[in-house]
Design goal:
Length: about 150
């Protein structure tokens, strides 16, 4: 059987909270949004759940081990950006094993901690919109789609 349904790209994002601030990475040498701060995040791989993707990305990008029970879903975003259809799933965690570090210095210029009310000007624009939705208490957001 064939389907004509959408096949969006899927990414998971992590809000790792410590002392009222969140871990951000400064993108570098990736070819997309270099020079902008983003959350530890990445594409969900084939045959991988959103939670499995978030756990894997946490280990790869910032060197921490997360348990599924410590992940809280805070937002799902369906966006159309740069000609691509994306589903973004954002999780928050305030408990993990290990120290949050820049585990991918070849892709991240630095790791920094910011409060959501004091973000740098060079935050990834689409992430900034998602963080605004989270701050407003929304858990679903669509943007980039023509009416």
């Amino acid at each position: 059987m064939t389907y004509s349904t959408a096949t969006p790209r899927i990414a998971c994002y992590l809000l790792l909270k410590q002392n009222g601030k969140y871990a951000f990475v400064l993108r570098a040498n990736t070819g997309w949004r270099d020079g902008y701060y983003g959350l530890p995040a990445g594409k969900v791989e084939k045959n991988e759940s959103y939670i499995q993707g978030a756990i894997r990305e946490a280990q790869e990008e910032v060197g921490v081990t997360l348990q599924a029970t410590n992940l809280k879903h805070v937002l799902t975003s369906h966006r159309f950006e740069d000609g691509s259809d994306w589903v973004d799933v954002v999780f928050e965690a305030d408990k993990w094993e290990g120290e949050v570090v820049n585990n991918e210095p070849h892709m991240h210029g630095e790791l920094a901690w910011f409060g959501l009310d004091n973000l740098p000007e060079n935050i990834n624009p689409s992430l900034g919109l998602m963080l605004e939705q989270i701050a407003d208490g929304n858990n679903f957001f669509e943007y980039g789609w023509e009416e």
